[in-house]
Amino acid sequence: MEHTHPTASPGSEPDFGGLRALFVNATLKKSPDVSNTSGLIERSAGLMRGHGVAVETVRAVDHDIATGVWPDMTEHGWERDAWPELYRRVQDAHILVLCGPIWLGDNSSVMKRVIERLYACSSLLNDAGQYAYYGRVGGCLITGNEDGVKHCAMNVLYSLQHLGFTIPPQADAGWIGEAGPGPSYLDPGSGGPTNDFTNRNTAFMTYNLLHVAALLRAAGGIPAYGNRRTEWDAGCSPDSGNPEHR
Q1: Closest by alpha carbon to 105, among 159, 158, 176, 205?
Q2: What is the spatial distance between Cα 6 and Cα 205, in angstroms, rounded to a whole number?
Q3: 172, 100 in Cβ contact below 8 A?
Q4: What pLDDT is recorded for position 147?
Q5: Cα torsion at 206, 204, 25, 102 (round to 10°)?
Q6: N or C: which end of the chain has fewer CB within 10 A?
Q7: Rounded Cα distance, 231 and 96, in Å
Q8: What pLDDT does 234 receive?
Q9: Cα Rg of the chain (Å, integer)
């Protein structure tokens, strides 16, 4: 049986106007050094901008993000912490895309720190009493010249969904060069920007993020029945037969 979208024909152009996306680049290179990850980010971000989406990119290493798992580490002995301001930018976006390079077959240390700080705020609640990231979508982009795209993506996407983000289908894309020392994504002759496999996956990821973000926006977020921390803490469980818990 063929399944079609209930509200739009395959050829109709959807309306993504008003959506906001944040790309966090977890490169180890500070600005203005060239980041190969930024090249792949721009391919996805360009598609979004073409549909009227407000896109912001942040190079995490340019910000003094403290180490730790509390929302504001200046309350726990650190002199400075840029994370509270960055967290506000995460919360302002409908879409969060974590992007970064492969080092030793794994995500960069900067990526790990960003995920740890996202985790630090995961116990905060939204206006519906759900965890703070509910109603937002997440994806990832990975670049490198060694194996590890899928391994890195699994870690990022698992982490995002565990924190409350909604993960669309095929919400990751990446590029790796020939195994071993070799050209990076933006290097002349690398073939990265013209690689059909990477470009197709990046486009599919981008549009799936946009589609799911638009669906969540239209629905007012994830329905709050059965997943509100405030109700659980009050002793109210939707599947409880005890009248005292209603």
Answers
A1: 176
A2: 21
A3: no
A4: 85
A5: 170
A6: N
A7: 27
A8: 79
A9: 19
Strands 106-107 and 172-176, by their bridges, are: unpaired
Other C-beta atoms lying within 10 Å of the C-beta of residue 121: 20
Structural element, H or E, at residue 106 = strand 106-107
Structure tokens belonging to residue 128: 């519906």
pLDDT string in tens for the chain (246-residue length): 444 444 455 667 899 999 999 999 999 999 999 999 999 999 999 999 999 999 999 999 999 999 999 999 999 999 999 999 999 999 999 999 999 999 999 999 999 999 999 999 999 999 999 999 999 999 999 999 888 999 999 999 999 999 999 999 999 999 998 777 778 888 988 888 899 999 999 999 999 999 999 999 999 999 999 999 888 887 776 665 543 433
Specify whether the CB–CB gap between 37 and 59 falls below 8 A. Answer: no
Reduced to 3 states (helix: H, G, I; strand: E, B; else coil), residue 100 is strand
Q: In one letter, which amino acid is 170? A: Q
- Which of 159, 24, 169 has its CA nearest to residue 98? 24
d(CA 153, CA 147): 12
What is the 8-class DSSP label of residue 29? P
Show Cβ contacts of residue 32 under 8 Å, excluding neighbours closer than 6 positions: none
Handedness of CA 97, 102, 106, 108 (dihedral sign): negative
Element (H, E) at 88: helix 83-92
Q: Are 117 and 67 in contact (CB under 8 A)?
A: no
pTM: predicted TM-score of the whole model, two decimal places? 0.90
Residue 239 has a pLDDT of 61
